Amino acid sequence: MSDSFQWMANMMGDLLVAPAQVDGNMMTAEVSTGGGRTQLLFVMEGDDYWLFASPFAKASQIDADRALDILTQVEMAAGMRKFGELYCITRFLDKGNIQAAEIIEVVARCVAAADALENALGLGDQL
After folding, report:
1. Second CATH level (architecture) for the domain 3-120
2. Which of 11, 13, 64, 108 is 20 to 30 Å from 30 at the Cα level?
3. In whole angstroms, what is the distance from residue 80 CA to residue 49 CA?
4. Residue 50, CA distances (Å) to 3, 83, 116 in order
5. Contact 68/56 with Cβ under 8 angstroms?
6. Whether the Cβ atoms of residue 113 and residue 76 lie closer than 8 Å to each other
């Protein structure tokens, strides 16, 4: 694991359910959302930012219009992107002088929003 992803995993600390995995420029982690539920989290590193993405549905389960409509039902949702076949809630964080508390807040909000959407869609705890 690269130094920057190791640092990010360390900052996420107790939120991680299992050790994070890195493949190229992306880290994949499983994060607890409470109540026995978990969410996948993808973390990508840019030159001056981190991108956090947590999937809430597969493209085979809902269409883009439904994904956008359901997005308005969750207050914490900041943005949405499609990565491969997954619709994800996304958040960006500027790299400049970030602290652990900021990372924890962004991760917690990202996975909570994705979990709420997944639940609202009646998809269980798949992602």
Report:
1. 2-Layer Sandwich (3.30)
2. 64
3. 17
4. 14, 16, 23
5. no
6. yes
Q: Would you kindly state where each structural domain of the chain is located, as residue ranges?
A: 3-120
Furthest CA-CA distance within the chain: 39
Helix 3-12 / helix 100-120 crossing angle, nearest 10 deg: 70
Measured in residues, the chain has a length of 127
In this structure, what token pair is assigned to residue 9? 């995993």
Position 77 scores a pLDDT of: 57
Give pTM, 2 decimals: 0.88
∠ CA 61-123-41, nearest 5°, is 90
Instruction: Please check whether residue 62 is in contact with residue 121, taking contact to mean a CB–CB distance below 8 angstroms.
Output: yes
Which amino acid is located at 119 in the chain?
N
60 torsion bin: left (phi>0), alpha (psi -120 to 50), beta (else): alpha
Place of tokens 């995993």: 9
pLDDT in tens, 27-54: 999 998 888 888 999 999 888 899 999 9
